[in-house]
Every structure is written in structure tokens, then in C-alpha cells.
């Protein structure tokens, strides 16, 4: 690690001493990770960081990109737009050319994208890209789209479409309660749930709707009481991290056996354990892959390699894909200039552990399949392996190809003047 770098940067994969003949330090392509590493969602931030670190170190072990190593810097967003913007400036000052983020929520990522865009406009030739792995507000690739932003996850509308298509085949679902975190994504998840599920199943009754503070509720019993009083059999909730775990606990403690529909909670550490401890309820979520999914040998192999190296479970191929896509675009453009790299990334098709995926040039939305799956007890048939030390794993309910989820975009992309 260069001794002049501030300790707060803590480079994870510097590789800065790779040099010609060992006499001169070679250039690195610096990537800054900005996501929560403290507070109620620190475990989520660490999960994401580990996936990125694994990909960076794997690429560097194979010689880097065009013989240029990647260098990973890390910053704690603290789930704050202000902290994230300060981290962005610090990252730029240290020479970062790409920012990887997404776990801090849509409002924080939107602020980061706006700040990066302002910097890029004022500093042509010194631009920075924002690669978003988990913040799925459709506006980020819709009306608020920006040339410097790329989304590597299916957005909220795409995920809810996958769930709605599945709910259409489940007549047992009759009465739905919308219980969500009180911020942009929670409100969107509720709105898309009401509109898309309602369109897919006009017979369903929406019997209640509540928003609660994000990351601050310690006991969800009062909220569960409201759900019970409504007569609901199903909860559509965008909760994640401790907010989902505590909701499951409260419902389980009350002996309530709800069906939950969520965007990504099953991919967060502790969720399977929370479901098993609750003992009641079925959590159905949607992602690009789930552990143990059939007919995904490349993902299985990557999961084993990740476990062997990191000592943790591999959960999110899309986060790994974010780094691989960046490396492929650097390779394709034969440049480390973010403008050339971003241009190369547009409409790129990459063969990944979950199959071929494409970055749509129109709005910078990655098009990838979605798997509707449910956390369920191991039965030796559809669920063959336990997770997080439990006898609960993942049951595939439906695999929906990307083309079936490709929705229209309102993006009117403004391209940089120096293109």
C-alpha cells in the first residue's frame, strides 16, 4: 500500500507494485466502493464489498486488464447522501475513475449520480463513472437517466413484473397488505405492487397499506397487529436487512403464517436464519440467481471458488458481474479513460455465470433473467441443501428470461460534448 494514502482509504487490492522490470510503479485503475459499512445495514455493505473484492482480486491474479491492475478503495456511506457525496469527492481526489455503489438506497445513489455528473461537466477529461449494483429505482434509468450511470440489477418495475407474473398462477393469494419502509424504494415497491399485481390479478383485494421508518423499528409487533386486523393472507414488502428479519420474527412470534413477496431479501445474510427461527411464513423473493439453482453450473463453480477464498457464502452474481463488465469494457476500449470505457459498455453483451446479459445502450439498464424463489425447508427434492446453518434453503418457483421483463424506458440520454 502506498504510504502516502490516508488510512481511511484502506486499499483492498492495490497491486500497484506491478511494474516493468520491477523499477517503476505501473498505473492502476482505481475503483471506489461507497456503501454502508456501519449502522443497521453494515452486514449488507460488507456482503457487497466482499463480492467486489473477490472479483477485483480474481481479475488482478490473471494479470489485470490490459496489464493494468485494478485498485479497490472503500468508503462508508453511512446511508447518507451527504456522507456519500463527501466520499465521492475524496475518491475523486485519490484518482478513482469508477464508483461502485447501490446498497445505500435510491435517494443516496441518485445524489451520487448527480454529483458525479456535475463533476464530469466541470472537469472534462477527468470524469468518473457510477456503477450501481443494487439501487433499483426505475427513474435512474428512466427520466433521471445519466450517461455516467449504469444499473447492473433489474429495476423495481422489472422485479415486480416477475413477481406479478408468478402471482397470476397462485389463486390462493386473495388479500394483500402493503408494508414497506418509508423512503423512495419502499414507496415504489408498494406502488408497483398495487398496480402490477392488481393488473395481473384483478380479483385480489388490497386490504391495507403502511409505511414505517427505515432501520429504526425495533419491534414490528404493532405493525403485524395491523396486518392481522386487516385479514390479509399476503404481505408485499420491500423491507431488507434487519427490517425484514424483525418483521419475520414479530409475525412468527404471533403465530401468523403469511406469504411475503420481496425483491431481494433472501440474498441478504441472516434472512434464511430469520425465516427458520420464525418457523412460519413463506418469503418469496426475486433475483438473478439463488444458491442451489438447477442448471447453473457456472454460478455453482463461482460460488465454490468464492467460499474457498472468502470464507463466506456467494449470494449476488450481479455484484460480481459489475466488476467483470467494467473490466471487459476497459479491455474492449483499450483505454482507462472513463468516457471511452462507458461508451464501450453500451450495448455490450457479456457471458457470465448466469448466462449472457446485455447492457442496454438506450438507458444503461442491464437486462438479465430473474428467478422467483421461496425460502423453504429442505425436502431432498426441490430444496436439497440448507443455508446459514439451518435446514432451510431456496425453492425455484419460476425462471423468467430477460426479454420477458424488458420494459419501455422514458430515458432521453444526453451524451457528453466531447464524444
UniProtKB/TrEMBL annotation:
InterPro entries named among the record's database cross-references: BCAA_transport, Leu-bd, Leu_Ile_Val-bd, Peripla_BP_I
Signal peptide from the UniProt entry: 1-25
This protein's UniProt keywords: Amino-acid transport, Signal, Transport
Keyword Transport recorded: yes
Keyword Signal appears in the UniProt entry: yes
Family per similarity comment: Belongs to the leucine-binding protein family.
Protein name (record): Branched-chain amino acid ABC transporter substrate-binding protein
Upper lineage: Bacteria, Pseudomonadati, Pseudomonadota, Betaproteobacteria, Burkholderiales
